[in-house]
Each structure stands twice: as C-alpha cells, then as structure tokens.
Sequence to fold (550 residues):
Amino acid sequence: MTMEGDSNPVASPIAGPMISVRDLRVSYGEREVLHSVSFDVQPRETMVILGGSGSGKSTLIRTLAGLEKPSAGEVWIKGKNIADASWREMDDLRRKMGMSFQGGALFGSMTLGENVALPLRELTHLEDSTIRIMVRLKLEQVGLAGFEDYKPSELSGGMVKRGAVARALAMDPEILFFDEPSAGLDPIIAAGIDKLIVDLKRVFDMTIVVVTHELASAFLIADRMVMIDKGNIIALGTKEEMRSSTNPRVRQFLDRVPEPEVATELDYLQMLSGDEKKKKKSKVKG
Amino acid sequence: MGLAENIGRRTLSGLAYLGGVAQLGGRALYFGFAHPLKGRRVHPERAVHQAMAVGVEALPILSLITFFVGGIMALQSAYELQQFGAMQAVASAVAIAMTRELGPLMTAILVIGRSGSAFAAEIGTMKVNQEIDALETMALHPIPFLVTPKFLAMVVMLPCLTTWADFMGVLGGLLFGVTSAGFSVASYFRATLDALLLRDVVTGLVKSVMFGAVITAVGCHEGFSTGGGAEQVGRSTTSAVVMSIFLVIVVDLIFTVIFYFTNG
Fold:
C-alpha cells in the first residue's frame, strides 16, 4: 500500500527522542504564554501534560501539533525542527501525527464514516472499497463498529470522542496527541477512553502525548508526566517521582487543595470591596 | 485620538482587510489549478455540490425577484418615455438596464444573502468547533478543501444565474409592454433583440464573474477570522454580507468605468 508523501528516506527508525522541545516560547501577540519550556518525549512513551486552567498546556500541545508557531526555541519532531519547517515538510510530518481535540471536532456535515475516511480519500490514492474497509477497521478499534452512517450530532459525547480518535488513527500515525480526552465524560466512559489510550500504545507502539487535568486518568495512562504552571515546567518525571514531589504547587494540584482563603473577616471585606471597585470600573469603561 | 489618526488607522485596517480578502481569493484560485497539476486527488463533486446550492437552488427566488425588477424598470422608464411619445423604447430600456446593470447586481445581492452569509457562517462555526484546526492537523489545507470548491462554483454559477436573471427581467418588462404599452409578444422580443448589443450582455457577465469572486473571498475570509463563540459567528455573518455588498458595488463602479472608457 503506497501512500503519498512516504518518500522521505530520513524517516524512522529514529535514535533519540521522538519529540524534543528546547527553550520553547510561545506568545499570543504581546503576551508570552510559554516561557522557555524544555523536555523530551521518547519513542513509544505516553507523556501526560498536567496543569491547571490557563497554565499553557493547551498551547503546548497545539504547538507540538503544529497549530501554533513558536516565537522562540525549537521543537524537534522525528528529527525535524518544526519551528522552521516548510509547508511540505510540515505536511509530511502531519501525516505521521494524529490529534484528537477536546470537543472531538468531527465535521458536522459528514457522517462518522466519511469523517474517518477523509484523510484517506484526500491523501492517498486508495480505492473507495479499500477505504471503506479501513474505516470499518478503525471504528472497530475504538469500539464504534457499525456507526459509520451516523452524523456526529446523533452520537453521544463519548462516541464523538472515540470517533475523533478513529479519525486521528486513519493514517496509522506514529504520534498521537490528545487534548483533554476525558473532559466532560462520565467516569465509566472516561475509563473506556483511558483503556483505549493504553491499548493503542501497547498494540501499535505509538508515542502518545496527552493533555489532561483528570488525575485518575493521568496516573493510569502515563509513563512520564510534566506539569505546567503559568507557562513554566514545575515538575517532570515518572509517576512515582511526581507523587513524591515536594514542590508546593505540584502538591496543591495532586492533593486537590483549593486556593487559600483569606485569613480574617477584615481581609474578606477588603477583598470584596476591592473586587467591587474593579467591577464598577469595567462597567464604566464598557 | 485625533481625527486624522482615526482616519489613518481605519484606512490601514481597511487596506489590510482588502489585502487579506485578495490573498484568500488568489490562493483559492491557485489551489484550483495547482492541486490537479501536482497529482493531488481532486474531488469535483465538492464544487458541484456547492454549485447546486449556490446556483440551482437560487433559481426560483431569483426568477421572481428579477421578473419583478424587469416590470419595475419597464414602469419607471415608461413614466418618462410617455411624455416624449417614445413608449416603444420601453423594451430597449429594460433590456439594456437588465443586461448591463440590474441583472448582475440583483443576482449578486441575492447570492450574497443566500450564499455569502452561508459561507461565513459555515466556516465560522467550523473555526469555533476546532474543525479548521482538525483539517490542518490532517495535512488538509483549509483553503483548497473549503474555499476552492466554493470559488469555482461561484465564478461558474454567477454568470449562469445572471443570464437567467436578464431573461426573467425581459419577461417582466414584456408583461408590462404587452398589457400597457401596445406591444405584442413578438414585437417586444424583436425590439429587445434590436436594442441589445453583444457587449451589453458580455459586460454584465464579466462583472458577474468578478462579483462571484468577491462574494466568495469576503464570505470565507470573515469565516476564517471568526473569534470564539456563537455571537462571533453572527458578527462574522453580518460583516460578510455588509462588506460583500459594499465591495460588489465598488467592483461594479470600477468595471462600469472601465467599460465606459474602453467602448467610447
């Protein structure tokens, strides 16, 4: 089976990390969101990126997937620095990567089967009959066999997420990115997604990067973890190293400790009136 | 902020907008030819599907609108022509007005309302749902995938629709001409054909192709620059319609001037 773009002779096997991030900085306009982040992801490793809301973890995974351009630093994927890759080189890399988005991001105007078939139809010269078989295979891998003709709006949240994974698997990627795979799902469905991720790694030898803030999932699926706080890495290591970390922010996150409350009633009043002053200001301006 | 600064800032952002729209249109056109030549798989059924939605499904409402416009044109011109005893010129007035101006313009405005807004809403919603991001991660560039089929459909369909609009407008004038201006069906058509020069029809069709390109580029550009949330999709759609109407009129003016000075 020949696929377009598989002509790069420098491709795998690769010695060294699959993904290598060096002093990565990402900015949205004037605001820097990631400050000099560095870490590696080894081949066939599952790396979980942990962090609170606004920590920069989504920006990080979007940059790794090539959706954001670094403002400084390097991101090496399979021996190619995506910070200065051409369109064509980036496309070649993208064919070996798959991404599952937070809301699934299935195309609403197509059925599930058409969604999964899309990359195959566009990027290969396979016959339609072959593509149909591959679609059925991919959907079976995620437990959605038989749902080819359903539109995304007719599927439950968990099924949409599974469908998105099937689509990400369509081109048999070497690297899979997951952005919040269990967000908004009930514990049973979330556990199913976790098992799927573990199985993918085990059966297909994939390198997997997952962004999540669900601790139970994270500790189940991860080989190593990296924790981001306010755009900086505050912890990096195996599950055991994380669990035994003495970094206060890491402990706060892992032990589910809320932000500290104010000490006295006077402080509380001050906090309230300070907030109200701020609210009044924004009403006047707006 | 001073008035001069304000004007300067708005001019620059307006030029940047035009640049973005033109760039999008250019790239859509480029991919329309580059992809088949590079051996990438092309899917003409996408463009055909768009052409159905843009063109065929617009025919009923377009027919009604341009029929009425033709009738209105006949009535308005008859009002003046009567005073000079030149009622027989009604047929030619309607024919020339429709083919040179009203046909292309009314068609463009209808298509803006139907399709220009739809493009902005569809692409805007996709952007909000991260579907555009999903396309990029699958090495499917959004422009050849989403914009080029629409672009091709529009530049083919708009001249077709305009031709139909011209015909329906003449029919509208015919109704008035036969009932109140002393024409027979045959004499009205004869008067119409006598008055029309090929260049009247051709200038109208050339304009319609340009209108198609503008409407697609503006609608898609607004869609791609949608911010987050449903409210932003609404804003993009509104902006697409307003800017399309404005730019269509500007293009109309430019081409009308060009045709005026090149044809004497």
The beta strands of chain A are 19-28, 31-41, 46-51, 72-77, 80-81, 97-100, 175-179, 207-212, 224-229, 232-238. Chain A touches chain B at residues 4-5, 62, 65-67, 90-91, 94-95, 97-99, 101-103, 105-108, 118-119, 121-123, 125, 164, 167, 171, 177 (CB under 8 Å).
